[in-house]
Hints:
Elements: E1 11-17, E2 26-31, E3 34-40, E4 46-50, H1 65-68, E5 74-75, E6 78-80, E7 87-89, E8 94-96, E9 115-116, E10 118-121, E11 124-129, E12 157-164, H2 167-173, H3 178-183, E13 196-199, E14 202-213, E15 216-227, E16 231-237, E17 242-250, E18 255-264, H4 275-297, H5 313-321
Antiparallel strand pairs: 1-11, 2-3, 3-4, 4-9, 5-6, 6-7, 7-8, 10-11, 12-18, 13-14, 14-15, 15-16, 16-17, 17-18
The structure holds FE2/S2 (inorganic) cluster (FES) and fe (ii) ion (FE2).
The site of FE2/S2 (inorganic) cluster has 9 residues, from loops.
Amino acid sequence: xKKHANPYPFGWFKIAYSKDLEVGQVKPIHYFGRxxxxxxxxxxxxxVLDAYCPHLGAHLGYSNHEHTGRPGPVVxxxxxxxxHGWQFNGAGECTHIPxxxxxxxxxxxxAVINAWSVxxxxxxxWLWFHPENEKPMFEVVDIPEAAPGNEEWSDFExxxxxxxxxxxxxxxxxxxxxxxxxxxGTAEMxxxxxxxxxxxxxxxxxxxxRMKTPKGVIDGQIEAxxxxxxxxxxxxxxxxxxxxxxxxxxxDEERLKISFSFLKKRVNGEVPEGGVSQxxxxxxCKQLEEDSVIWEHKTYHERPLLCDGDxxxxxxxKWFGQFYQVA
Length: 327
Ligand code: FES
Ligand SMILES: [Fe+2]
């Protein structure tokens, strides 16, 4: 299979859900073909470091401390290496060596582990990835419905997949009207005139449609926003109130993690069971599984043969191209 020339675009990527990382908890994670460690400091902030301790190379994410009773895995704002107890803060600086009289000079005034930029927003933990370690060039978008403690919306309903797929192919899917008929079996070919606005690192499309329902004709709207290659959200309104918080993150050059979390608007404080909202969720998950058959086996053409009915694929590619570091 021919691969994309650049394996990983830069941007913000959903690497965990806030609820899955307690204070003082450590998790090994593997994205972008790298071994990393995620932890939450005692003051509550999520941090990500490269996984390997600069001392003798232990992976900071796998510890035995419950059995030995030694300190760890987090003390204050530092992660504790499970091998010899050295401590490192979220900036990758060595904060303490329990059995040394003096820190090694190299560890005195600079970071000794590569530290990653992390944001916690929308009940998710987002990692900034850049192949050359450039600092963030834009921000994670706030999705008000997903703000922690928003009582008007349900908890997340989470669906996740690990697929053999390229992140750009998944992004192109939304800009490809013809495949809905062939891959997803939709009754008609959706019209290819859905407007997608491309604005800097964001893209946004709005589909409006009048739908017949038992309660009469309702104006439905689907607003889809992409913020860089890794963050997206889709807001379904009118016929039902549902929000999809999407996240795509490359695991390595072949595999992709897709994490969808859905929010449903509460009615009189209750989360509606079933109904249109659940049908939408089911349909999106089904579509993803249908697409995966294509993604797993397709190749990548730098210069695809496109026709006039193909929708904004070429524009999408141009937009997506800005997130690849050109050597
Ligand atoms: S390997 Fe980490 S403290 Fe020794
Ligand atoms: Fe699709």
